[in-house]
Amino acid sequence: MDPLRQSASPCSSRPSSPKTPPCEMLGYVGIEAVLDQLKIKAMKMGFEFNIMVVGQSGLGKSTMLNTLFKSKVWKCTLPGLAMPTPQTLQLKSVTHVIEEKGVKLKLTVTDTPGFGDQINNDKCWNPILGYINEQYERYLQEEILITRQRHIPDTRVHCCVYFVPPTGHCLRPLDIEFLQRLCRTVNVVPVIARADSLTLEEREAFRRRIQHNLRTHCIEVYPQKCFDEDINDRILNSKIRDRIPFAVVGADRQHLVNGRCVLGRKTKWGIIEGQGRWTGPEVWLCLAVENMAHCEFPLLRDLLIRSHLQDLKDITHNVHYENYRVCRLNESHVLPHGPCWVNLAPTPPGPSVAPGPSKACTQAREDSDDN
Amino acid sequence: MLSPQTRLAPVSLHLLRSLSCLVKRVAEPEARTSAPRILLGLQHVVERGVAARVQAAGVSVALERVVSGPTATFAEGESCGLSPLTPAGGPHAIPPPTASARARRLTPLPGEANGPFQAGSHVALIKREGRRRGGSRCRCLRAGAGCWQSAAAREARGRRAGAGARARAGAAASVGGEHPGAAGVGAAAAMAVAVGRPSNEELRNLSLSGHVGFDSLPDQLVNKSTSQGFCFNILCVGETGIGKSTLMDTLFNTKFESDPATHNEPGVRLKARSYELQESNVRLKLTIVDTVGFGDQINKDDSYKPIVEYIDAQFEAYLQEELKIKRSLFNYHDTRIHACLYFIAPTGHSLKSLDLVTMKKLDSKVNIIPIIAKADTIAKNELHKFKSKIMSELVSNGVQIYQFPTDEETVAEINATMSVHLPFAVVGSTEEVKIGNKMAKARQYPWGVVQVENENHCDFVKLREMLIRVNMEDLREQTHTRHYELYRRCKLEEMGFKDTDPDSKPFSLQETYEAKRNEFLGELQKKEEEMRQMFVMRVKEKEAELKEAEKELHEKFDLLKRTHQEEKKKVEDKKKELEEEVNNFQKKKAAAQLLQSQAQQSGAQQTKKDKDKKNASFT
Hints:
The complex is a heterodimer.
Chain A: H1 33-45, E1 47-54, H2 61-69, E2 92-100, E3 103-111, H3 126-143, E4 159-164, H4 173-182, E5 188-192, H5 200-216, H6 231-243, E6 246-247, E7 254-257, E8 260-267, E9 285-288, H7 297-307, H8 309-330, H9 359-370
Parallel strand pairs in A: 1-3, 1-4, 4-5, 5-6
Antiparallel strand pairs in A: 2-3, 7-8, 8-9
Helix pairs in contact in A: 7-8
Chain B: H1 13-27, H2 35-51, H3 57-68, H4 72-76, H5 99-103, E1 124-129, E2 137-142, H6 147-157, H7 164-174, H8 185-188, E3 203-206, H9 217-228, E4 230-237, H10 244-251, E5 269-279, E6 282-292, H11 304-323, E7 339-344, H12 353-362, E8 368-372, H13 380-396, H14 409-419, E9 424-425, E10 432-435, E11 438-445, E12 448-451, H15 460-470, H16 472-494, H17 509-618
Parallel strand pairs in B: 4-6, 4-7, 7-8, 8-9
Antiparallel strand pairs in B: 1-2, 5-6, 10-11, 11-12
Helix pairs in contact in B: 1-2, 2-3, 15-16
């Protein structure tokens, strides 16, 4: 509380629209305290984040999730366990509440075992699209109720991490089909899985080829170029876009390397980290996951969690959900009753604001008709 | 080595408690003499445990070691599920596990022992207590020195957020910071074993074994909001000349240009003005709505109506935007009124009836904050009485004024103390007076100076605190979640939408909307038909009329033609006659001429003869 007038605080008048004239304030008022109020409110309410991982089995999706969130988010399937590969694509979700420094995060992870595992993978993306649209539908139904809740539970998928197998060549037709369909409905972040099977040069070449493929097929992955708000965003996001897809390695075991405990994978070959001597197969070496020289896992983690989590949620809410809503409210047939919205026929992904071939809507409609 | 899938069966709390106590006693050097008995005790307990179908490999292994090896094994601090019991209770880093120890690890995710978060000291063993359907109760048990009591105490206290034990586990994890030396919440409970079948509905608490980084989420959120800017709309209701504009100027430390209103307004009207303020990096779009002419009329029955209509109109605009198909809510300029400052005249007695009526109409639509204006005209003792009278009147009339929120710890205290002073008695001034050696906003009277920002003189500072610095966000939230929702509900119900139909099967808004739309379309079509028919009829009429007219015209034409013919004939007749006459005339003329010429000739002859005669006569 400042009882007396201070020197002119760093408040200025901005050029603004003609209807709202800017005003000079002659002293400190305390408007910026609203930021603290916001923070308190946000911490009290907690946050929600829903992430989906898509990829063939054995690419390390569950391990990656565990590494990302440094906890046992998902049980890893070890080889040899009598768990048959599912015949059809299933979607499994699990929800956890994790807390760090007072910030509570309700994390929902959706896994897709069975994706791309069959011999005929035609239309294997439909259940996934159906699931995503189902979540949008759920939110929409909650939103259009007369008496609605104070805080609508948000189960919409905020981010979909797509695991590209490290063939080293280019995107496969399955990848391209899937990415084309999904990039319009949800934020997709492609990653090169199991990148420890590629050398650095191979990684770069693979990455360039994938980027070229994405451009050719007009696939807009996150962060989308059209949603950059200002110059700072654009600069930051261009740097990220240059490195997409990240080459990641998931590891949830700790190993001792030179007296340090690192998260990584231990194998039996190659050059010892840091010593430059190869003393034979008894020596173990370790690929440290958090080491930027080894893999780009930190970049992925930073993107998903430390810097762009809120942005992911915002784009899902403001763009993808709105697109879905527009599409949904425009079609006046097939109206489900209230909460009984279970209608897993793949609803067409809406015509989106983002640039891209808009024939996906009609195409998907044809698909659903075919089904 | 345990694979991650191995499930730990529920271990009874009692068993573990006894185990830990016993183990503790064993570790103390003095107790070594009684070790055998204790060890025996342990074994006994273990057997009981085994009998109770405990498959906790970790526990049995620990006991194995206790029985076989020397007590030095404890000093090694093996990660066998029970941490080394250092008497100091300070952080004790787990030394890098050897290969053999790894085999006994409970989970493949040990904590970052030497990381920045001293996880080493706390090895938590999360056990599940079977409850109901193989339940979800987790307890984070720390078998460290002295941790038992605190853990239990913490559990007993229970914590916010989440239901029951879930919260406790999370809380115990989060309270890692309380334990001396342990920084970093997530890493505190290092050995987390999250087991159990993942199911869609179950919410479990996970403990983190490292710094993930989502604690920057509130900052991300705040950054986003800052870049978007904030909106705040204040409505000032009060009589003309009571000091509304001055107070706004004082509150925001600026001069909003406005001319003072006259007292001759025929009715109440609302004037809204928007301004953009910026302080450091926060942009605020402030809208101030003034009631012009409030309380000036002779008949004040309808004074409140324009105000209520204005508030409803803002809600309506937002609702329309929300119901649109293509909408853009995130950059919608929110004009809903967030706070209503009701200016009470400082009579010193009680509220006026106009005030009561208006406030009663507004209390369910907007957050009302009553303030006593021009408070420098009331003496201190009178002020106290005045305030209590006002509050009691408000309560007895059932007026719901805005309650400052007291559920959040950080602001509860200040809000509670401030609420006592409602309604705030404020003085507004934009002029500065020299007091001591500084300039301050004040009002100078012959008998003294009233300082605006002096808490002994008036409650201006309290108002500013409450309105701007502490509760701005809450005011906005209340407007959106309570008043707006109420308006929306009423409006939609009025339009005929329901959530459930008479059979109590849930309706969808869309269905009703569709039904109404079809109805409307049907009506439209009917109207269209009607109009079309009318049009056809009219066309026919017109056609008939036109035909009639045409016939008439034809007739007229015929008539005219005939007349014309007749005329023509007449004229021709006349012409003929005329010609005949002309001919006659010509004949006559010819004849006459002939005669004349003859006559002339004869005449000439005659004259010649005459002349000749004359001549002859002469001669």
